[in-house]
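Thread: quick sanity check before group meeting

JM: Hey all, I'm pulling together slides for Thursday and realized we never actually wrote out the predicted structure for the chain we discussed last week. Dropping the sequence here so it's in one place. If anyone has concerns about the input, flag it before I start.
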Amino acid sequence: MCSHYQSLKEQDRYWRHFGVEPALEPGCYDLWPGYVGTMIRAHPQAGVGDEAVPAAEAINGLFGLVPHWATDTTITKSTYNARSETAAHKPSFRDAYQRGQRCIVPADAIFEPDWRSGKAVSTRIESNDGAPLILPPDRYQDWLGLTSDINNFLVPYPAERLHATVPVPVQGTLLA
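JM (edit): ok, ran it. Output follows.
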């Protein structure tokens, strides 16, 4: 996950794309580690067999993982980006990984630095079709409910399905 992303601006997309009501408070639009934003998780009582309980819900939470042993939330500045190769073993991610604590992060776009000029140039990356769908809709419940092997999810997303744009400089600064 990048260190900067933009959450869904249109609240009705939560229902249209994910089948959940938006969180009561929308959270931030531009998010950085430690900011509060909306995520989608498996409903805590989804497995009780009650059809009235939805499979998933949108809630607000911190961008970045807060391990159970952390003493404060500033750790989110270094726990927002789990690598597929090490998430199962690193102390920061290991317990959540083994318990299957995952969420879906609804995003209009992510931002990554482009270093080709020798300097970090913020670059907006979004899907070619305008939907924030790195995870296919038919896999949402699998991702949220999976408690064992997740290796078939941890694969690179095809670059040809994304496009990048560099924000236009305004008065010597870059808009993010």
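AS: nice. The radius of gyration is 17 Å. Residues 91-99 form the longest helix (9 residues).
JM: adding both to the slides.
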